[in-house]
Amino acid sequence: MLSLLKQRLFNSRQAIPKWIAFCGYAMIVLGPFLLLSYATAHSLLNGDAAWLQLLIPSGRRLLLLSNSIGLGAIASILAMCLGWIGAVMLWSSSSKHSHSLLWMVLPLAALPSYIYALAWFAIATSISRLLGSGTARLLQGWSGCLWVEVAAFSPLALGFAWMGLRNIDPDLIDSSRLSRTDFQTLLRIILPLSIPATLTGGGIIFLFSILDYGVPSLFQVDVYALEIFAEFSATNSPQRAFLLALPLLLFAVGVLIALLEPIRKLTSRQVLHRSSWNTPPRWPGWVANLGWMIGIVLVVQAVLPLATLVVMGGTPRQFIPNLIQAQAETGYSLQLAALTSLFSLPMALGVAQILVHRKIKLLWFLSLMPVAMPASLVGVSMIFLFYHPTLQRDYLLALMPIFAQLARFMPLAVLILLAQLRRTDPLLFDAAQVFQPSVWRRHFQIGAPLLAPGLLAAAGIVFAFSLGELGATLMVIPPGKSTLTMRIYNYLHYGASGAVMGMSLVLVISIFMTAAGIATVIKLWSRPFSKAKTQS
Amino acid sequence: MITLHQVTKHYGSVMSLDDVSLEISAGEIVVIQGPSGSGKTTLLRLIAGLETPTRGQISIAGEQVSTPSGVTPAHTRGIGLVFQRSALWPHMTVVQNIRFAMHELSIPHTADRLEQLLEDMMLKKLANRYPNQLSGGEARRVALARALSNNPHRLLLDEPLTSLDPEQAARMLDLILNYADIQQATLLYVTHISDEANQVGGRLIRLQTGRVVEA
Q: Among A113, A497, A530, B187, which is least packed, fewest CB within 10 Å?
């Protein structure tokens, strides 16, 4: 049995570096959490049994948990609906600009949700000045929180829905169009075939929503994730925060387990380069109108906040002083994000190479576990580990934000690299083994160029998400340091001033420049290899 | 009658069909042959209304159906098509795949027609299976049943006998030719196998690099 497992896991000597990478990944991602679990169990056994009541949410905490789940469910359903309809309209459009529009909207998924909150605060203030204070009330409390979450998560939902639509074999659509109208084809063929990817996106959005406390706290909506942060701030006890986090964590883990198989399938799909609509679809009038309406809502949700940032914080008189004022934070944030993305690549690549041909659920679960972990719990676990007397070193404390960001975003890099590995013909690697004896030449002349788009995309995504990370960074930042997001978040509590608009604009520009730079490099890199679309 | 007048189709910089003019009479059997990349599939897809011509016009039964500025919807053309790959809808069973392709209004006895197709194509035992539970040959038979389900006046077949064993292939070919004969349907049959082309009979159209070299 053991030898069989050994054979399955380590089938060649070449697997050893991958497993070293996997262990490094597991240590960073799960190590602090497991140590904190052990310490909590130890405390409970040594007489702190009263803490057990933290495990079972009741009264106010039960209400907070239901608030989190309710908010997450509504936000993810609305974002999924908007995303799917918007994606259908873009995917089936014959306009040359639909692709450009999609690639403009997708990077918005990496923008921190509090940036949307900030912009919508400003918009609500302007509206209330024009129409009276009653209208602004619509963007307060639950409704405001929901609106901002839907706005922030719609680009992600659009991306997943678009992936689902792009993965449908165009012949399946054509064969339906021979006997059915385009609307019937949409409902009976396209919807069922694209819904798994859309639901996967919805599940991930649900997790992001229930684990986030940034936006709800700005709208004074009490949620469970904020309670973890508050408990730690009040008691300074990582064990108590851990026990309090456990119900939310267990719920999120349940959702993640349900998502494992759809995520695995999504990363294994082939990208189909053929267009699905060689003749434009004919939708009934009301469908076309609905599509337009949803399109306008998506554009308003995406563009209006950005336009507000530009108008209120982007004039040279405001922007340049703000840029100078936030110079230290911007530099530090960029430095952290760059180091996080750099460190994440070798570990994520090793994990992706292990997962690519394995369906072992436990490995998949361990690799994606951080997606289900509240950011505040990541922070608490890191603090528990790095403030332990044996590990308390200045240089380690300085690295803590990088470890926290790695723990949060490495799974994203793993998923992107998995998709890239699955889409690369394994015969190309086999051929390299046959013709090139040097391992290094195989890696650098065959492996690296073939995986370059995935590596670049993974690095870019980790960079962009790290740049906007708040939940864990806020807790682990070394004394005297601050990131741009922390500064924005702290200013946000005093209202949407020109200064905070300007700083947010700096962050948005950094994320967009990263996305544009990486997209350009990937496009230029892939151009010589891409095939023209032909039929035999 | 199907008429193609100076039809050209580009995919970006790649020319798939170049100035093709053809007249295919109602009830005629036509075999289309040509090497890979010669434009055979594109020709079928243009006639089916799944592609827009870059230049030229296509008419069916005297009615202009495809021009560069507009294409009438595929489902209004009375066409049955077997794709090069079977293209069965993976979330539907064999029966659901065939039934979905049927215009219920135009076929008064849907259930009878379905029963007959399952019988003819030897699919009765497979009726409730999903496409991923079928072999290549079985999937091909379902694809053919689906193409015939609507009683189309024009049947376009793109390598329909691929993945079938010789015995099944002979039986399917008989069924196709019988269908064309009884329904007086126009048959456009793409194959690269000369023996198969001879068995189908009818007019031979040979394509090379997007041009008709023999018609």
A: A530
